[in-house]
Amino acid sequence: MVSLAKGAGAWHYGQVTEKLLLMAAKIVAACGPAKPADAALRTELRSQHGLSRDDGREISGAVFAYHRWLGWLDRSKKLPVQVHQALQLDAAFRERPESFPESELRQAVPDWVAGQMEVTTAWLRELQGEPVLWLRARPGTGLDLATDLCDCRAAGGKHLGDALQYLGTQDLFRTAGFHAGKFELQDLSSQAVGWVCAPKPGETWWDACAGEGGKTLHLCDLMANKGRVWASDKAGWRLDQLKRRAARAGVFNYRTELWNGGAKPPTKTKFDGILVDAPCSGIGTWQRNPHARWTTQPADIAELAALQKKLLAHVIPSLKPGARLIYSVCTLTRAETTEVTEAISAEFPQLKPLPLVNPLSPTAPRATPLWLWPQDIGANGMFMAGWQAP
Ligand SMILES: C[S@@+](CC[C@H](N)C(=O)[O-])C[C@H]1O[C@@H](n2cnc3c(N)ncnc32)[C@H](O)[C@@H]1O
After folding, report:
1. Among all residues, which ones are annotated catalytic?
2. Do 307 and 175 belong to one domain?
3. Coarse DSSP helix, strand, coil percentages of the chain, rounded to the nearest 5 percent
4. Which residue owns the Cα nearest ligand 1 atom 13?
5. How much is the average pLDDT of 136-142?
6. Which residue's C-alpha comes closest to atom 2 of ligand 1?
7. How does pLDDT run across 74-89, given as a tens digit for each residue?
8. Is a pLDDT exceeding 70 seen at residue 11?
């Protein structure tokens, strides 16, 4: 185990000095159900003028480590001591992951999770590691982007030359390439949703829960700016962010509409394809977002499952004959995945289940639903299902 050295009156853990540890503890104290860790970090780090980028990175690492290892910590101790303990556990896990037995790894998530999904040791072990940062280069430009940015590794495979792991330390949001719209930060499993939709140039698609447009922009790119993607969401501020991202990327084959998920669609247009990337409990992102492990509640899951079914039911009348409907959620609970798809198939027997190619394993037989598990792909967990209209 890595030891904590106290020298010359100041704590030191790797680069984390006592001052940084205290700042990390202050941010941990500010986190709560209404203030996710990344928002608390943004607020606090912005207010700290003169903090170096390296210090900011150390503080973020300490805050994320605290939430990743919360199940192990001695809660009777003061917060800075707990943060420090979490950093030690993080270092020990990085050095010897196998020294954490299965019985102990169960502490990585709250007990209620086992009642909602299959909890395997492989998943728990993956959750405790550092998440990979994925980039999506514009179509066909992965190699050039990797040369520009350095420290990139392509996922490999048919589409996958444009999906890059970023291993460097640059602030990507400040790079010229980012401002020129040459890439987006987008997890591999989210990129997989775009490839599963596989819209063709000239088609008309509806991205019904478009949010800030991660998948809208990918669909537009796959359509080579030909045809149209209708992007709707109930949050106008998210659609405003989508427009800013689209302008940066030089993407124009889309339009935005507010839609609150009600029975009245935002347009009378009928679509070749509809993507419902529904709001969900986000358990598939818990490696990247460990704070959410402790704020998500089982009651949220039942409520979200009801919303997911409603959203799907309300888009179905907008499918053209023969059109495809794709459902995706970055979660792995039964209630939000197979129970939703089974309910939709039962309520709409005219829809044919559509077997999907797994873009991350293209030689595997087509399947619906499609599960992407973090431990298999080194990215967020994702569930997808497809149907075809008669
Ligand atoms: C998983 S996020 C979408 C992420 C987005 N597709 C992307 O790739 O960046 C789900 C979105 O559903 C939206 N949403 C939540 N409830 C909704 C509702 N009742 N009607 C429409 N959209 C809703 C949220 O505002 C959120 O943007």
Report:
1. 330
2. no
3. 45, 20, 35
4. 209
5. 94
6. 279
7. 999 999 999 999 999 9
8. no
Q: Which residues line ligand 1 (CB under 6 A)?
A: 190, 209-215, 233-235, 238, 259-261, 277, 279
Q: Whole-angstrom distance between the N-terminal and C-terminal Cα of the chain?
A: 60
In a domain, 118, yes or no: no
Tell which atom from ligand 1 comes closest to the C-alpha of 210. 6
Q: Give yes or no: residues 213 and 342 share one domain.
A: yes
Instruction: State which of 188, 195, 209 you would mutate to test the pocket of ligand 1, scoring each by most atoms of that ligand within 8 A of its C-beta.
Output: 209
Instruction: Say if residue 259 is in the same domain as residue 355.
Output: yes
Q: Which residue has the tokens 């499993």?
A: 189
Tokens 């607020």 locate to 43
Residues 61 and 202 in one domain: no
Average pLDDT, the chain: 93
Same domain flag for 243 and 373:
yes
CA of 234 to the centre of ligand 1 (A): 7
How many Å lie between the centroid of ligand 1 and the Cα of residue 351? 23
Is the domain of 84 the same as that of 72?
yes
Residue 292 CA to ligand 1 center (angstroms) comes to: 17
Q: Which domain holds residue 43?
A: 5-99
Residue-wise pLDDT tens digits, 306-352: 999 999 999 999 999 999 999 999 999 999 999 999 999 999 999 99
Q: At residue 103, does pLDDT exceed 80?
A: yes
141 vs 137: CA distance, rounded Å: 6
Mean pLDDT of 24-45: 93
Mutation probe of ligand 1 site: the residue of 215, 233, 260, 315 with most atoms within 8 A of C-beta? 233
CA dihedral of residues 193, 277, 131, 363 (deg, nearest 10): -20
Whether residue 236 is found in the same domain as residue 363: yes
Neighbours of 326 (CB within 10 A): 26
Strand order in the sheet with 10-13: 5-7, 10-13, 16-17
Q: Is residue 381 part of a domain?
A: yes
The three-point CA angle 306-308-310 to 5° equals: 70
Q: How far is the CA of 233 from the centre of ligand 1 (A)?
A: 6
**What distance in angstroms lies between residue 207's CA and the mean position of ligand 1's atoms?**
10
CATH code of the domain covering residue 160: 3.30.70
- The best mutation among 234, 304, 315 to test binding of ligand 1, ranked by most ligand atoms within 8 Å of the C-beta, falls on 234
Identify whether 114 is part of a domain.
no
**Domain closes at, from 185, 211, 245:** 185
Same domain, 87 and 43: yes
